[in-house]
Amino acid sequence: MEKTPEHASQEAAAPLKLLGSWASSYTHRVQLALRLKGLEFEYAEEDLGNKSDELLRLNPVYKKVPVLVHGGRALAESVIILQYLDDAWPETRPLLPSDPFDRALARFWCHFADDKLGPAVGAVFASTGAEQEAAVRQVHENLALVEAELRDGAFRGRRFFGGDEVGLLDVVLGCGSYWLAVFEEVTGVRLVDADAFPLFHAWLRDFEALDEVRETIPAVDRLLEYARGVRHMLLGLAGAGAGAAAASATAEAPAAATPAPAAAADIAVDI
Questions:
Q1: Are strands 73-76 and 42-45 parallel, antiparallel or unpaired?
Q2: What is the mean pLDDT of residues 68-86?
């Protein structure tokens, strides 16, 4: 049965609850979108090393944050949640453009951010030596593609990817780009050079200056402390794995793989 306007209005007015983690850029995406749209929500912090029964029940497939609960119904995956917010509250500030091609283009580059750029940045953070150098090259190649789109492509002449105001792609790229400076501080590796990527660099500065972004992103000192601990853990795990592999090569029976801590898979190192 088709919903009446009154029914749709009642659904939109149902309470919103967000399950997330303070350091997760995926969580920050949803928090920022909710603030940009002026939507009130309850926030529940998750301990990713000891996930709540509620999180496991609401997201049994991936068992990760963020999870948005609207009127008792749960949605997972940040980009899906952002698009849902646009669909459910069309009268609020839009994240996606009205033109179908532009909407598809924004979705494409969101996928690029999560599929290529983010993993490359994460690889820089979790490695050293030649492996890290290869990851840095991959980051720079990916950033060059974004820079080209800002200079000559679909986003040419825009202050934000969404135009005069931030849109879906700004939220996805921006909630994570602040990790670049944190990773540079922790690893000593320069990822974003203003001379090499001037348009991306200018976009990031404008994005980070927004009041809603400042309200969403944790303090740099806290992020640095967290990142140093995570990098120490990841490098330790990598060293343990290499040691186990060397031992298994000479042992009669292969050594069991050392399991990673429960929280390791949930560490947000995406851009």
A1: unpaired
A2: 97
The type of residue at 49 is G
The pair of structure tokens assigned to 111 is 């996928």
Q: What's the CA gap between 53 and 35, in Å, rounded?
A: 27
Q: Is the pLDDT of residue 208 over 50?
A: yes
How many angstroms from the chain centroid is the CA of residue 101?
24
Residue at token pair 């580059």: 109
Q: Do the Cβ atoms of 106 and 167 come closer than 8 Å?
A: yes
Question: Is residue 207 a contact partner of residue 117, using CB atoms and an 8 Å limit?
Answer: no
pTM of the model: 0.86
pLDDT of residue 131: 95
Digit-coded pLDDT (tens) for 112-129: 999 999 999 999 999 999
Vertex 54: Cα angle to 177 and 90 (nearest 5): 55
166 membership: H or E segment, kind and range: none
Region class of 207: left (phi > 0), else alpha (psi between -120 and 50), else beta: alpha
